[in-house]
Amino acid sequence: MVNKRTTFNEGVLAVAVSIAICLILYVALVSTLPVTLLMLALGLCLIIVGERNKSIEKVYEVMENQKAKAFIVVMVFVLILPLFVSGNSYIMHIAIMAGIYSIIALGLNFQLGSAGMVNFAPAAFYGAGAYTSAILAVKYGVSPWIGMIFAIIMASLLGFIFGYPALKTRGYYLSLVTIAFQVIFTLMIINTDWVGGPNGIPGIPGYQIFGYSFRKPLEIFTVKLSYQTNYFYLVFLLVGLAAIVASRLYNSRIGLAWNAIEQDEIVASTQGINLTKIKLLAFSLGAAFAGVAGALYAHYISFIGNEDFDFSKSLVLICMVILGGMDNVLGVILGAIMLTIMDEKLRDFADYRMLMYAIILIIILLVRPQGLLPKRNRKYETGDGLDEKINIKAVLGGK
Description:
two-stranded antiparallel sheet; two-stranded antiparallel ribbon
């Protein structure tokens, strides 16, 4: 009876926490900038207070044990959100972009959060996926769905080709190499007429399934919704799949190897980890995620240009991972959603937008340098059934 009561209480708590998170995101999405900042501040305060009274760890454990219930709440929230914002296409656009950036951030987290490799060129892989799918559709009439597959292949191949020589460097030198790659990619787009040059690629077709165009309004229970609802559901379906893949990788031997490399490469290599292979895997998988997001963006917006994939975009994507919490799947998604919303709300300030964006980020990182939901120690189950938390750094002898 006690076990059943405990399980019931945990289920209620998991549902309540999930609903609270969804409500905070909804209010931040539909409200003005001051209210959005207030919601972000409220979330920060709740996390900080929870850590000080040590209740946040209990919430983590409950959410882990009752993740099925939490997933159902989030799924219901995603399904009904378009019904509440059906009359506002701009809000739907923000939500779609938040989902697209979440996919990129999850891929970037493999490098930045798990393996400790600072990559300043995620927008280049994002752009590679977008341009690949767009060119195939516009110039050769290839289906956007097939174009997405080629976008994944091209972005992954680019990640492998670029990553192999780049990984011969470390630390700040690796960062400089990725910056150079990002600049080269942007200049190549601008100076190559075959890919549109500075004029970009217009007229990119949308997705279709069984003859139904995603650019047609969607009708649900006699309620007519904007065409963006189709893309909203598609994007967040892929966000869910990306989150599942990222979580499985984190809990696999590959994720453990990435963490070992992040803590101490020398110790990791002495434990039999192939540094080159594991690092290249992080680059290629991260690039594949960006390729998916690029294809989604190209066929949603119907126009792409070099300004969509420049260095400033890479900086914003990096901030999403850092703010959300490196090597934490849920944290990365929350960081991507919150920063996307905040970035869009700041457009009213025109020339001062990036200045205010930077000030807000600095304040948040000063208050919460480890991110909204920071990396947690891995949890294993010993042979006698007892749970034991093991710090990878301590196990590997890192300093």
